[in-house]
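FAQ: What does a ligand-bound record look like?

Like this one, built around coenzyme A:
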Amino acid sequence: MIIRNAEPRDIPAILSIYNHAVRETTAAWTSREETLDDRLTWYEARMSQGLPVLVAAGAQEEILGFASFGAFRAKEGYRLTAEHTLYVDPTVQRQGIGRKLLLRLMDIAHEHDIHVLVGVVDGDNNASIKLHEGLGFEKTGHLPQVGTKFGRWLDLVFLTKVLKPMEPPKP
Ligand SMILES: CC(C)(COP(=O)(O)OP(=O)(O)OC[C@H]1O[C@@H](n2cnc3c(N)ncnc32)[C@H](O)[C@@H]1OP(=O)(O)O)[C@@H](O)C(=O)NCCC(=O)NCCS
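The answer part, i.e. the structure of the complex:
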């Protein structure tokens, strides 16, 4: 398995992994599956901003997972904080792929001078919370019952990690 930059040819596989999570899980708080155009637009926007989109690819070049980060919030005061996203194909979960994707993403965020990475997850997503905590993220926010899907209330959990201590930039 290798981690590499995503290419346009990977978008159908990324779409399929994401849409599976939309249908079956509360990882994405929506029931609207994306179209190929939606994902291509997302990918092109990330590329045009110089942001990473990574895939984990197996021996047959099959896509096993993907990860990316982008702006946490739009106002420029948040520019040194990024929110990441991470999905692994359900048939190959718990084999270390998520950890490898997130570790690579953290390295790239560091290279981009990102100060804080934020993961925003469903409070019941034990797999994601444990994965993040194992890599030094801390649960720094918990908003009870702010979402709903499948007829349930969902809690939102913020997982953050300061990547490198630094002085605040000059105004
Ligand atoms: C969360 C997710 C990315 C984890 O990816 P993964 O490849 O299955 O995770 P890994 O195999 O790298 O696991 C790394 C660590 O995370 C924790 N973990 C992963 N899956 C777990 C599970 N089902 N239960 C408990 N802990 C789990 C463990 O600490 C694990 O380390 P260990 O296997 O040495 O005990 C994956 O479950 C997924 O894609 N879920 C759906 C989408 C999602 O929730 N994305 C996160 C939103 S940011």
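Follow-up question: can I read anything off the structure? Yes, for example: The pocket of coenzyme A is lined by residues 21, 25, 27, 85-88, 93-99, 119, 121, 125-128, 130-131, 134 (CB under 6 Å).
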